């Protein structure tokens, strides 16, 4: 990255031709790594790195060893550390690597792969490695809530309820994940929570009832599964607070369908606040939340703030072009 914050090619100067040295740390418990295929995936990754001209070492670790392995890699002689796993694993790695000042790459290996989607990273592993090889290093903002680091989103309301029910069905009942997801969605919409929240931002105060609250990275937070490329800015220093409108059960389901289709309508679906920081009070002593897809408890008031350029990422060329397009059309792209 140069002094103006522009991404630099993943190389080491015009006279240097050596390949990038990548340490890949893979969570063996990730969604696409069933026990019988873990060795196959590690071998396939090593072949993909070699095919695309990257010098890489792949380490497959158990979930409980993942963070320690990333910490070791962060202090090693690598140009970047590639984290492989679901959104929770990617978030943990990002926190460690941001603190260490080590560049990061992403290998999407979870169920939703939300952060990878935001970055326009291909969801197949060979495509993700190819994107690394052709990519550029660039800055990405992170966020925190009450001092807890996250890179994609923090949610309250209906989404944590859905995640809790899906996890219960999978782990306690032994349901297959696709079936658990469908049933958890149905159950969440049948009985969804309504939160009374007070939002304080830029000297203003708003009070409203909402079925969900989502804090994410700028306008990229609008569509969690299908982010239009012209909105995919992750380094403009703004946090997006999205508050769902009270639409009733059918209206909320219609809003969810628009989310999956990438057609969210701010007039119909949500209230959007773009700020560097804000505080959210909820009418509860503790509130269930998700941080980058992982269930947790938070204690109000929830103090959100953006962490500008907290993380250096190896970005795919498509994400860089999207950012350049956005820079040419204004800091927030088309009006929403």
UniProtKB/TrEMBL annotation:
Annotated GO molecular function terms are:
ATP binding; kinase activity
Swiss-Prot/TrEMBL keywords: Kinase, Transferase
Which SMART domains is this protein grouped with?
DAGKc
Answer yes or no on keyword Methyltransferase: no
Domain named DAGKc is located at 17-149
Matching entries from SUPFAM superfamilies are given as: NAD kinase/diacylglycerol kinase-like (SSF111331)
Which InterPro entries would you find in this protein's record? ATP-NAD_kinase_N (IPR017438), Diacylglycerol_kinase_cat_dom (IPR001206), Lipid_Phosphate_FormReg (IPR050187), NAD/diacylglycerol_kinase_sf (IPR016064)
What protein name is recorded for this chain?
A: Sphingosine/diacylglycerol kinase-like enzyme
């Amino acid at each position: 990255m140069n002094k103006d914050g522009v991404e630099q090619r993943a190389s080491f100067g015009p006279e240097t031709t050596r390949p990038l040295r990548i340490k890949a740390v893979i969570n063996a418990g990730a969604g696409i790594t069933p026990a019988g295929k873990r060795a196959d995936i590690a071998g396939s990754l090593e072949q993909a790195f070699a095919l695309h001209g990257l010098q890489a070492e792949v380490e497959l670790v158990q979930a409980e060893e993942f963070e320690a392995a990333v910490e070791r890699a962060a202090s090693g002689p690598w140009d970047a550390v590639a984290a492989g796993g679901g959104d929770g694993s990617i978030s943990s790695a990002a926190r460690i690597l941001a603190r260490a000042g080590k560049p990061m790459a992403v290998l999407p290996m979870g169920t939703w792969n939300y952060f990878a989607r935001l970055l326009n990273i291909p969801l197949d592993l060979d495509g993700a490695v190819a994107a690394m090889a052709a990519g550029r290093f660039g800055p990405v903002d992170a966020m925190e809530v009450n001092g807890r680091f996250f890179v994609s989103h923090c949610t309250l309301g209906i989404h944590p309820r859905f995640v809790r029910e899906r996890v219960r069905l999978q782990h306690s009942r032994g349901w297959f994940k696709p079936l658990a997801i469908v049933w958890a969605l149905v159950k969440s919409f049948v009985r969804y929570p309504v939160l009374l929240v007070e939002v304080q931002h830029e000297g203003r105060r708003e009070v409203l009832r909402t079925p969900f609250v989502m804090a994410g990275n700028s306008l990229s937070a609008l569509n969690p599964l299908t982010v239009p490329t012209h909105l995919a800015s992750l380094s403009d220093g703004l946090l997006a607070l999205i508050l769902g409108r009270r639409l009733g059960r059918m209206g909320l389901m219609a809003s969810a369908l628009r989310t999956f289709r990438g057609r969210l309508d701010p007039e119909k679906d949500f209230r959007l606040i773009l700020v560097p920081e804000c505080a959210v009070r909820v009418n509860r002593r503790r509130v269930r939340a998700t941080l980058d897809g992982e269930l947790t408890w938070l204690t109000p008031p929830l103090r959100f703030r953006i962490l500008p350029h907290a993380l250096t990422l190896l970005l795919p060329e498509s994400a860089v072009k999207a950012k350049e397009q956005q820079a040419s059309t204004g800091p927030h792209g088309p009006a929403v």
